[in-house]
Design brief:
The complex is a heterotetramer of chains A (172), B (100), C (352) and D (116). Chain B has 100 residues and is mainly α. Chain B is built from three helices and no strands. Chain C has 14 helices and two strands. The longest helix of chain C is centred in the N-terminal third of the chain and has 39 residues, at 2-40. Chain D starts with a helix and ends in a 7-residue tail after the last helix. Chain D is flat, with a radius of gyration of 25 Å. Chain D has a domain at 55-116. In chain D, 69% of the residues lie in helices and 0% in strands. With 116 residues, chain D is mostly helical. The chains are: A mainly alpha (172), B mainly alpha (100), C mainly alpha (352), D mainly alpha (116). Chains A and B meet through helix 1, helix 2, helix 3, helix 4 and helix 5 of A and helix 1, helix 2 and helix 3 of B.
Chain lengths: 172, 100, 352, 116
């Protein structure tokens, strides 16, 4: 009962926020809404029993990645070119096509999805799933884990290379 | 008890919003934000499946997706800054240079 | 269903206590800061405002100041982003209060045959929640600077948030040895593991404590790291344009953050609600009452965090301000390598 | 009771406090706006470009923050299972840290963190 109320409450907020994020005019407003969106999504994760993922979502997504977006908006002129370009009619056709395609795809998905039987659905909320996740990550996912560090390394190097000033690039 | 389909529908709505944002917003910042939205929809599906099946693999995948998203956002935004400095705009329609 | 209502009642009561604690923080701390500053500079400080003929060492000064703040005119700059201008103080207050209520203030007490832990938000991810939530506090600052459309505000908010993100990493890394040693993320069980006074975090992980102490000052933008509001360069940083009640809200959030970190420090490194040299279980035996022991533990914790609050004031009136490049250098080139090495060495020692 | 319910309560209370304070100041304070009061407070310097471009260093700091933040989270996860994994875990995290230290050294060498 409580779960259903919380889920539909969060889901309606998330739906409204997701639509708002891609439709508002100002980038700052969009980022702020996206922060709320990700925060409430963390609530859904918590509802699903993924406490650790929920807190990671808050730490990394809401607390770090979106700070980066915020900084970029501050660094660039915030009132930069906001006008939308492109053919209105063409856009409308494309929009309807994508929407219909998605509806069709979703129906297909639910049609083909093997119905979960009562035995399949475990949905037990693990008491201390930080420990379980850690154990599984460090025992079964060694290589992806080490590769993730390589990915972070690549991220560091390329971000620095790209954001160098052009004048510096010439001298190198 | 909320059926699993409803979680998937929520994820689908978020993913669709993200896709439409990438396709229609003519602003690189909004396009990157929409990509974040899409990645989050994917994460939601992973977490839902993991919770309903009682299997933690899905949650570990979310970890890697978040790592990926962080790197993607970092590099993407670095490119946005570089493009803005070079061309003075972040509207992809004006960036004809990128079209071969 | 009865249990649900009982727990809800308990949560509401706990929330009121936390709110009372949070709301009385700024007046008392402002008074202490002014008096301490006066004491260190051989002045008198505020000592006039009192009740009728009793002066009370000027203790009522801050109360009067609060009333004054409310009766001030609220001015909103013309090009300000109105929505964010009104929202920003609240956005910095919410994370501060959330982090405060996730602290473990004591062992559980027993009321009507129910165990009530003295912790409002008790998640099994423990203090990671506090770290994550206090990271969200950046938005209040950034949006405040952005919304007030003042270039000094914007620069101040960017400085403040760059400083906060830089010191968040050493702070996170410095707490990993604590998890390694006590093998838990929950504040309650970390405190229980510190029953023996020689098992306190300060003795087992002194380098972590050192790093945490520095980041504690930097995260709250306090002197010597108060570059965000260095009044000689940036007017007042991100809250230049905020007057009257909004300024009071920022102040409230700042002091709540300070208190949260001070309490977190005493929980993780100084045994939390363990009375020194008397383990909690023994204290229960001695007193013969569970609730009384918990209450004494609560007071002990408050005394410990009061010490760190005093340290904040002390340092503020003692040390000069850093330069911005020195600040960044300290964070990135000294604290991060040190804390990474600390994690690794601690794990090696524990494995030996 | 779900442990997440108090979070909602606290958020609501914070909103109420913020709203109440603003409302109090709105009703109690005087209101006489002048043109000078509406200007941003910039010590009398004419506000030519009110939103200047800021240094890109801030951006570099925050991208490095994200990447190290993820590393911190991985380390927390490892710290939680450290006792169970033993030497194997230490070796794993050693390789992980080694790769990241390479990145860290690169950051230092590229002078991305030098604020002149």
């Amino acid at each position: 009962m409580g779960e259903a109320i919380s889920f539909y409450f969060l889901a309606s907020i998330l739906t409204v926020l997701s639509i708002a994020v891609v439709t508002v005019q100002k980038p700052v407003v969009a980022v702020a809404l996206l922060v709320f969106n990700l925060f409430f999504l963390a609530g859904v994760y918590a509802l699903l029993g993924a406490h650790f993922i929920a807190v990671i979502q808050v730490i990394i997504y809401a607390g770090a990645i979106l700070v980066l977006f915020m900084f970029v908006i501050m660094i660039l002129n915030p009132d930069m070119d906001l006008k939308e370009t492109g053919d209105k009619g063409k856009k409308f056709i494309l929009f309807s096509a994508v929407s219909v395609g998605f509806l069709f795809f979703s129906f297909k998905m639910f049609e083909q999805m093997a119905p979960l039987t009562k035995e399949d659905i475990v949905s037990e909320i693990l008491e201390d799933n930080t420990y379980e996740i850690g154990l599984q990550l460090f025992e079964d996912y060694i290589w992806p884990f080490e590769l993730a560090s390589l990915l972070i390394l690549l991220g560091i190097v390329s971000a620095i290379l790209i954001s160098r000033k052009p004048s510096q690039n010439k001298s190198v | 008890m909320v059926p699993i389909e409803h979680y998937f529908i929520l994820a689908l709505i978020m993913f669709t919003c993200g896709t439409l944002g990438v396709l229609f917003r003519r602003n690189l910042l909004f396009m990157l934000m929409s990509i974040e939205l899409m990645l989050n929809a994917v994460n939601l599906v992973f977490v839902t499946a993991s919770s309903f099946l009682g299997d933690l693999d899905g949650q570990i995948m979310v970890f890697f997706v978040i790592t990926l998203a962080a790197c993607e956002a970092g590099i993407g935004l670095a490119m946005v800054i570089a493009i803005y400095r070079r061309y003075g705009t972040i509207n992809p329609d004006f960036l004809k240079v990128l079209r071969g | 269903m009865d249990l649900f209502y009982f727990e809800l009642m308990a949560a509401v009561v706990k929330m009121c206590v936390i709110l009372a604690m949070a709301l009385q923080l700024p007046p008392i701390m402002v008074w202490i800061e002014r008096r301490a500053g006066a004491f260190m500079q051989r002045r008198k400080g505020p000592n006039r405002v009192g009740l009728f003929k009793w002066r009370l060492w000027g203790l009522l000064q801050s109360l009067v100041d609060t009333i004054k703040l409310i009766f001030k005119e609220e001015s909103v700059p013309e090009d300000a982003d109105k929505v964010f201008f009104h929202l920003a103080p609240v956005l910095s207050l919410i994370p501060a209060l959330l982090a405060l209520s996730a602290l473990s203030f004591g062992n559980y007490i027993i009321l009507f045959d129910h165990e009530i832990p003295l912790q409002l938000i008790n998640l099994n991810v423990g203090f990671l929640f506090i770290l994550g939530i206090s990271g969200m506090g950046i938005y209040g600052i950034v949006l405040a600077g952005w919304a007030s459309s003042n270039k000094f505000s914007l620069l101040g908010s960017l400085r403040a948030s760059a400083q906060m993100v830089s010191y968040e990493i050493p702070m996170g890394l410095s707490l990993i040895p604590i998890v390694l040693i006590y093998n838990s993320l929950e504040l309650g069980s970390i405190v229980e593991a510190q029953a023996n006074t020689w098992q306190w975090g300060i003795f087992l992980a002194p380098i972590s404590f050192f790093i945490f102490l520095i980041t504690m000052f930097a995260e709250t933008n306090r002197a010597p790291f108060d570059l965000a509001e260095s009044e000689s360069e940036l007017i007042a940083g991100f809250h230049t344009e905020f007057g009257s009640s909004k300024f009071a809200l920022f102040y409230l959030a700042e002091y709540v953050n300070m208190f949260t970190l001070a309490t977190l420090c005493s929980i993780l490194f100084f045994g939390g609600w363990q009375v020194p040299f008397i383990p909690h279980l023994k204290l229960i035996e001695l007193l013969g009452s569970h609730n009384l022991a918990s209450f004494i533990g609560f007071v002990t914790l408050l005394l410990k965090s009061a010490f760190f609050m005093w340290l904040y004031v002390w340092v503020r009136w003692t040390l000069p301000r850093f330069r911005y490049d020195q600040l960044m250098k300290l964070g990135w080139k000294f604290l991060i390598p040190l804390s990474l090495g600390n994690v690794f060495v601690t794990s090696l020692i524990l494995m030996m | 009771m779900s442990p997440y319910l108090p979070i909602l309560l606290i958020i609501l209370i914070a909103l109420v406090i913020g709203g109440a304070m603003s409302a109090l100041a709105h009703f109690c304070g005087p209101r006489n706006q002048t043109a000078a009061k509406k200007e941003p407070f910039e010590c009398g310097v004419p506000n030519s470009s009110r939103r200047e471009k800021m240094s890109v260093k801030f951006y570099l700091t925050s991208i490095l923050f994200i990447l190290f933040d993820i590393e911190t989270v991985f380390l927390y996860l490892w710290a939680r299972v450290f006792k169970t994994l033993g030497w194997f875990g230490v070796a794993e995290i050693f390789v992980f840290l080694l790769i990241l230290v390479v990145g860290y050294v690169y950051v230092l060498r590229s002078k991305a963190l030098d604020w002149d």
